Recover the amino acids of this structure.
């Protein structure tokens, strides 16, 4: 029975006898649900009949003339893909609510590297951001990634794509159903997997609680990737410049990603006037709390002619060497798709050297976060935490851009001439 669990010890016995174990359940709601449960619990690969046909089970597949060669080819591709990471098996002596896990149990996972969805850019689980100026092609990039996952591709732009469920969800406030239908038709002209588009779900602008909607949907549709485009449009009732509010909003998505073993990618904008500067994580619009909550932040910007540059602005588990240069992409306007030959470009060549301008670029709205005044110590720490400005230099910035409030000890406000244009260069 598909609802039966594996007897104790049978998994080890099978692994000792065979190089690979594959789950092949019926192509119905019960079969899909139960195979996903076993996959998560034991780290087993799933062969979905949807990848080769719409038949209910393997018997129907061959009965209806299914090709053995096609089935063998699909199985071989699956065997060569990475095995899913099994759920953590908690040891004894832990709290009953199982929210704590011991170091010993973590060591049993035997992980020697961070599991990735898109190697090395996106981890398998967590939050990430793709930022860029308007018309830089962010949505097309995100949509192409989602299509590749839904199609079961094993690589994207020359790097390994480790999708387990081969499903993605795209939440869009930028495009409606008509424009999206047109856009994916153009993008699908460059590949032949229209029959797998049931693996890609779209949700257009909604005033409902997005995490709550996703929580219900993910019970029946286990997605590897969730794209939110654009981040700022879903901050209903939340101040984009308030770090505490932003982090509270993002925590819901972070918990959702952890519980459902998936990656959430936010498509977001750069601050006005920063797309000509050297790429920096501080150029993202809004509070520093957004960037701080992301495990990885990528920037997409337009280069010469049909070139685009993909730069790693932040990557908790990515080498420094990769962050020093951008991946040069070619954008085909006829198909709205990206490609690359692997060429890279030093990020110092992507923006202006500040020259005779200030060494640091400061957005004072991020420093004051809606407050009229701050203590000197608060200003020093905010400049250090948000823009990595040493305390000695930060003191000079305070004297230049702020003024002391009479009658209040060591308390400052932004000078009037900088309130209308709070970004200092």
């Amino acid at each position: 029975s598909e609802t039966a669990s594996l007897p104790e010890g049978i998994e080890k016995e099978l692994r000792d006898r065979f190089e690979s174990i594959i789950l092949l359940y019926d192509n119905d709601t019960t079969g899909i649900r139960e195979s996903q449960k076993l996959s998560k619990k034991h780290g087993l690969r799933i062969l979905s009949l949807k990848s080769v046909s719409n038949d209910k089970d393997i018997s129907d597949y061959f009965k209806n003339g299914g090709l053995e060669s096609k089935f063998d080819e699909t199985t071989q591709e699956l065997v060569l893909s990475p095995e899913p990471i099994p759920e953590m098996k908690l040891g004894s002596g832990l709290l009953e609510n199982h929210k704590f896990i011991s170091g010993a149990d973590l060591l049993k996972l035997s992980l020697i590297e961070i599991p990735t969805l898109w190697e090395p850019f996106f981890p398998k689980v967590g939050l990430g951001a793709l930022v860029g100026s308007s018309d830089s092609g962010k949505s097309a990039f995100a949509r192409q990634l989602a299509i590749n996952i839904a199609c079961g591709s094993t690589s994207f732009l020359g790097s390994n794509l480790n999708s387990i469920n081969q499903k993605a969800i795209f939440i869009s406030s930028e495009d409606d159903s008509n424009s999206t239908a047109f856009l994916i038709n153009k993008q699908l002209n460059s590949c032949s997997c229209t029959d797998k588009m049931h693996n890609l779900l779209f949700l257009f602008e909604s005033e409902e609680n997005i995490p709550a909607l996703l929580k219900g949907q993910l019970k029946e549709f286990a997605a590897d990737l969730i794209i939110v485009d654009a981040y700022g449009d879903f901050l209903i009732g939340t101040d984009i410049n308030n770090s505490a509010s932003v982090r509270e909003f993002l925590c819901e998505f972070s918990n959702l990603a952890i519980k459902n073993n998936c990656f959430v990618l936010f498509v977001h904008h750069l601050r006005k006037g920063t797309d000509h500067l050297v790429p920096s994580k501080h150029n993202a619009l809004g509070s520093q709390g957004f960037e701080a909550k992301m495990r990885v932040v990528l920037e997409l910007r337009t280069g010469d002619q049909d070139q685009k540059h993909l730069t790693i602005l932040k990557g908790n588990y990515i080498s420094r060497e990769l962050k020093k240069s951008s991946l040069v992409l070619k954008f085909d306007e006829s198909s709205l798709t990206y490609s690359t030959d692997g060429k890279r470009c030093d990020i110092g060549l992507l923006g202006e050297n500040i020259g005779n301008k200030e060494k640091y670029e400061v957005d004072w709205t991020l420093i004051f976060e809606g407050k009229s005044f701050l203590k000197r110590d608060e200003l020093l720490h905010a400049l250090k935490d948000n823009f990595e400005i040493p305390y000695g230099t930060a003191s000079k910035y305070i004297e230049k851009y702020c003024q002391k409030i009479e009658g209040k000890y060591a308390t400052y406000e932004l000078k009037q001439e900088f309130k209308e244009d709070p970004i200092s260069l």
Summary: The mean pLDDT is 84. The longest helix spans residues 243-260. DSSP finds 15 helices and 21 strands in the chain.
